[in-house]
Amino acid sequence: MISKLIDVAMGRTLADIIIKDGTVFDVFNHTFIKADVVISNGKIVALGSGYSAKETIDATDKYVIPSFIDAHVHIESSLLTPSEYAKIVIPKGVTTVIADPHEITNVLGEKGISYMFDSAKGVPLDVEYMLPSCVPCTPFEHSGSVIDANLTRELLSKYNFLGLAEMMNFVGVINNDSDVIEKLSTGAFVDGHAPLLTANELCAYICGGIQTDHECSTSGEALEKISRGMNILVREGTGAKNIQQLIKAVTPYNLNRFAFCTDDKHIADIVADGTILHCIKKAISCGLSLEDALTMATINPAKIYNLKGKGAIAPNYVADLIVCDKSLDSLHLVLKDGAIVSKDGVPSFNGKSISIQEVSNTVRVKKVSPQDFQLEFTKGMPVIETMKDSLITRKVYPSSADGLSICAVVERHKATGNIGKAFIKNIDIKDGAIAQTIGHDSHNITVLGDNPIDMSIAVDSLGSNGGICIVHNGKVISYMELEVAGLMSNKPYLEVLAMDKDIVEKIKVISKDGSSSILMLLSFLSLVVIPEIKLNDRGLFDVIEWKYM
Amino acid sequence: MISKLIDVAMGRTLADIIIKDGTVFDVFNHTFIKADVVISNGKIVALGSGYSAKETIDATDKYVIPSFIDAHVHIESSLLTPSEYAKIVIPKGVTTVIADPHEITNVLGEKGISYMFDSAKGVPLDVEYMLPSCVPCTPFEHSGSVIDANLTRELLSKYNFLGLAEMMNFVGVINNDSDVIEKLSTGAFVDGHAPLLTANELCAYICGGIQTDHECSTSGEALEKISRGMNILVREGTGAKNIQQLIKAVTPYNLNRFAFCTDDKHIADIVADGTILHCIKKAISCGLSLEDALTMATINPAKIYNLKGKGAIAPNYVADLIVCDKSLDSLHLVLKDGAIVSKDGVPSFNGKSISIQEVSNTVRVKKVSPQDFQLEFTKGMPVIETMKDSLITRKVYPSSADGLSICAVVERHKATGNIGKAFIKNIDIKDGAIAQTIGHDSHNITVLGDNPIDMSIAVDSLGSNGGICIVHNGKVISYMELEVAGLMSNKPYLEVLAMDKDIVEKIKVISKDGSSSILMLLSFLSLVVIPEIKLNDRGLFDVIEWKYM
Predict the structure, then answer these.
(1) Is there a contact between B316 and A229 if contact means CB atoms under 8 Å apart?
(2) Who has the most CB within 10 Å: A137, A289, A298, B530?
């Protein structure tokens, strides 16, 4: 193999492909250069001129840039299987994702992990999985699965993981929880998850060996974490949008500590704007240079995660690259391992359909009735206030129930009958309810409505596979089945997109501000590691005080 | 261990040391910050305030900076054993070196490697060895040892090497020499050595998996190599001095591709100025910022060589650091693994004396006589011209022998009697000769003089251990024995320094421009991988044409 590459670079052997006359992004010198890119055996062998190849791609007036790397994503949040997910991100320039199968693992444990590895095979997207470090994400959860330190060690050696995924249990880290410390002692690379953590607590957390954070929301927070040695994954997903704030922290000198990620992004948003491509454009619109943005999308994540031979257009690098117009509006070609995998936005590969028997029919709920969702408002009771474009919630004490909706979380793994309830502010629902089997991170059923009858019908209608259900005046008006763990559809992405469109339209029937972001907000209402107040099947949880209220 | 660090960071357990009120270099944000540095169990656990410790170091008005890493060095060139070398570099702020035991390995093979590992044990200098990739350095050599691909594989698994050292045989790489390719196929990290290599040949060389280069002599050469994915080790040693030229290539964006190294530096120069400390000061005097220079001396080499936990002052990093005044003129304290190893320039540790039986008495020469060194000048014959501060030589054709000296290379490993001879320009010798058993890379005897009698006496006087010998008018006027492989003295560094001083003084007796740089120049006269014309025991070699003349 080495000999072959050298022969091609020396011009002794014909190359497979030449991308000719393009303007190539030199990630190392942070500039664009004129050069032909010579490819052989899936690798870039030379930048230069005067070469011959079996195939020539004309890149006159076009950019040739390394394809993108998403530094942290939960594929489940797209509602697609990994195989179908590849078909919507590759045409938008992504060829590698660092994926955390946290959601399906909370539902199904190792069965979910195994499915995710299998589904990603056979598509030209490099899915580098991190092993979820927090299943359940806190000791306060009723999830479908538990992965302790012993099982962590076993799974790390059994599967080809890149490391341990987001260590959300920062309280466990800084208080030396023995199971957490044992996980950190495996020597694996560990991703962080430490919103607002600062000063001595931040130092203690980093002493656990944690190397990244994707939860920064201010530039000051990012700068402190960088100073203490962390890499910052700048997130722009459907729910959480941090680019505008965080790029204020970027300097020419700390640029190499930043990478883009999406964390959680919905199918419709991906199809519309892409994932990392959207991060790049958003960052540029907020004032970052094109070169800086491309750096954060390519070589930086490759270096942070030690992905050898990725993220650059240089000899001996993998031929993962994009030929695009200079506005980045049209990605003409995407190449993976030297093969064209997308042309003018259309994927040129097929996924492989695999059995979902082991990962479907996962919903087990004790029969509900309207009275399960009754909740009386009393003055002085804590209420969850949601905030635009953020996963952070606030604890408020409104003086009346005006404009509040009811939300509830129904345990769905072991049919325990546990239901937590609370009022929620800033999501308006009228004459209806929405229920879904997506609810980070334990993925119990989250339901939102203005009356107990519709809420009960919505939960009931999710069936044994689960999904998303909208009820209006006693009738189901839209339903998307999510056969895989109650989290992902097993259908082709175009069908899922159509179902999703219907869901979003029908949300408007019961909510005047209705949009897909309501679904994303619902998904995170029960995530007790994000401040300030959350709800799960055991009731309201005060994240700051780290206890149930 | 992790638990202990976290306890200290949280303030629950007393720290070992606090470095208080210093100005700390934040390598990640490229700035200085005010913070106490908290150390426990040899690691930095926190930057902050309000901590307590068993020992407090006052750093008011002082810098606290990560200690330095020399990215590429041949310890042998200092004339000291690794154990003694540690005593002169640690007080100058170096606590880690990436060392290539190329010289001793060319003389002694595995015996030399084993000795170098042993000698470095027991001193607080982290010596990370690279396995020499080119022993002999070209097929044209008569060295004392041969390491082929099979032995390379064996040694890589037997010893704890960081990778393969400088791949000097670029001709072998780009022409797919099978033994070279097999070495490159081991998957090890490979250092490069590719002076003036450019364009397609450079790309082919990099396809061999070669990741660094320390032979750049112009900024343009550095920029091209960076563009093609290489890391540039900016060298400032006794013979080769590249900082002034190469820092012109440094930008805020490619800064992370540069590190400092010394390659070959003589004991006297190290004691006077240090190694990497000198690089930093020289670079600053040439216009680089202090922050850039410190970055190239610390975090950059750590990242290039994947030295985990090194190169920064941040939680979970190894407590290798320097407390110094803000001029960098006085390194008050050097800490290694959290322990003070040097105070105000004096090492606070002892080396360990080990047996040199396996590595001494290495010189085997066929008896020489004056007529072996007779050489007649004829017009049109090629002559070696040396250049100031460079290892590069030029092929010239002077019209007379005026100002020329005679040089010769005498095979010394197998007593074959091979002697190569040539005239040399720009080194003046009068009524005397210098001979030494140091001659890169095969380390045959190099001798320089203006008359055959003194040359013969000088070679003869080197003895079975070898060393450096100066003869004037038929008498030995100075001699330094180099018991270890004919390359290094086994004596304490102060004694070696005194002997070296005597040698340098006596050089002036036979050469009006005499200085230690004559010794370094002599050492490289036979290194046939550096352009343009070299001499070894088989005669004059044209490096450009890659053949004997």
Answers:
(1) yes
(2) A298
For residue B500, give the nearest of B485, B510, B515, B486 by alpha carbon. B515
Cβ within 8 Å of B, A 4-33: 5-7, 9-11, 26, 28-30, 33
Cα A356-A357-A363 angle, rounded to 5 deg: 95
Record the tokens describing residue A132, joined without a space. 């979820």
- Residue B388 pLDDT: 78
Nearest to A203 among B45, B174, B226 (CB): B45
Farthest CA pair distance, chain A: 82
pLDDT per residue as tens digits for the range A392-437: 899 999 999 998 999 999 999 999 999 999 999 988 899 999 999 9
Residue with tokens 């960052």: A283
Read off the DSSP letter of residue B91.
G
Distance CA A108, CA A443 (A): 11
Q: Which of residues 212-251 of B touch A (CB under 8 A)?
A: 223, 226-229, 251
B41 to chain A, any CB pair closer than 8 A? The answer is: no
Residues of B in contact with A173 (CB under 8 A): 6
Residue ranges in chain A whose pLDDT is less than 50: none
Which among A26, A204, A315 is the nearest to B9, CB-wise? Answer: A204
What is the distance between the alpha carbons of residues A112 and A129, in angstroms, rounded to a whole number?
12
Contact of A485 with A362, CB cutoff 8 Å: yes
Q: Which residues of B touch A28 (CB under 8 A)?
A: 226-227, 229, 254, 257
DSSP designation for B265: -
Evaluate if residue B198 carries a pLDDT over 80.
yes
Residue range B134-178, pLDDT digits in tens: 999 877 888 999 999 999 999 999 999 999 999 999 999 999 999
Q: What are phi and psi of B477, to 5 degrees?
A: -105, -10
Q: How far is CA B33 from CA A46, A353, B207, in A?
A: 43, 55, 42
Encoded tokens for B297: 């001396």
Q: What is the DSSP letter of A489?
A: B
Q: A257 CB near a chain B CB, below 8 Å?
A: yes
Closest by Cα among B441, B74, B59, B447 to B233: B74
Task: Report strand pairing: B405-410 vs B394-396.
Answer: unpaired
The Cα–Cα gap between A49 and B200 comes to 9
Residue B536's contacts (CB-CB under 8 Å, 6 or more residues apart) are: B140, B141, B142, B409, B420, B439, B442, B444, B526, B528
Judge whether B205 and B199 are in contact, CB under 8 Å: no
Interchain pair B48, A200: CB under 8 A: yes
Tell me the two tokens of residue B422.
Answer: 């040539």
Burial state string for B349-384 with b = 16 or more CB within 10 A and e = fewer than 16: bebeebebebbbebbebeebeeebbebeeeeeeebb
**Per-residue confidence (pLDDT) for residue B240, from 0 to 100:** 86
Q: Please, are residues B525 and B446 in contact by the beta-carbon 8 Å criterion?
A: yes
Tell whether A122 lies on the interface with B, counting CB pairs under 8 A.
no
What are the start-end ranges of the E strands in A30-151?
Answer: 31-34, 36-40, 43-48, 53-58, 63-66, 68-73, 94-99, 126-131
A2–B46: do the CB atoms touch at under 8 Å? no
* Chain centroid, CA A139 distance in Å: 23
- ipTM entry: 0.93
What local confidence, expressed as pLDDT, does residue A183 receive?
A: 98
In order of B57, B71, B217, B311, B426, the CA distances from B236 in angstroms are 33, 11, 11, 20, 22
Q: Give the whole-angstrom CA distance, residue B368 versus residue B382.
A: 25
Model confidence, pTM: 0.94
Residues 6 or more apart whose CB falls under 8 angstroms from that of B524 comprise B239, B391, B440, B530
Å from B98 to nearest chain A CA?
Answer: 20
